[in-house]
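User: Please check token order:
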Amino acid sequence: MENSQKMVKHPSRGYLFAKRVTDIVLSVIALILLSPVFLVIWLLDSFGDNKGPVFFKQTRIGMHHRPFKIYKFRSMVVNADEILHQDPELYQKYVANNYKLEPEEDPRITRLGRILRKTSLDEIPQFINILKGEMSLIGPRPVVKEEVKIYGDRADKFLSVKPGAMGLWQASGRSNIGYPERCDLELSYVDHASYWYDCRILFKNLISIFKSTGAY
């Protein structure tokens, strides 16, 4: 544990200040400009088979091991986690596949949800997490408690920075890149984090979103 602590890089105060200001400004602008999207998805979630809450909230592990609720537009049926755990074989496949399932074999995803995931529109509510200070625009992707164990004695380093809505893993291929390679990518960001590096990752993520690279 002591060795892993020594490996943690401490970003400068100037970088952290600039990063936080950027997060706040961009989050406010995004939430205002994208408010029509919230309205449309709320209307779509009010009728038919997709009827249910607009937001999906899930506990993720944030900076310094602090848990928080991540927000997404709901892309799954209500009680999706219960449905997954009712099928032990499917759940084991989900875990073995880096906590993902192919859309065509995932019984939890709605028709609207497939569109939201493919276009990454389901991630828009995370601007709320960013505004609250639980996440940053750029950083390692926040994981569930079970995934933290994969990082082993490097977990403290991984959680030494705020998780991000966009990160090096997503820019490099997203769901096409599984563990343990994903660990190395996320930790590489921790080692090289800077304001201009964040800008480069943002640009690469926008390209990946446009191409729908690894989105499901």
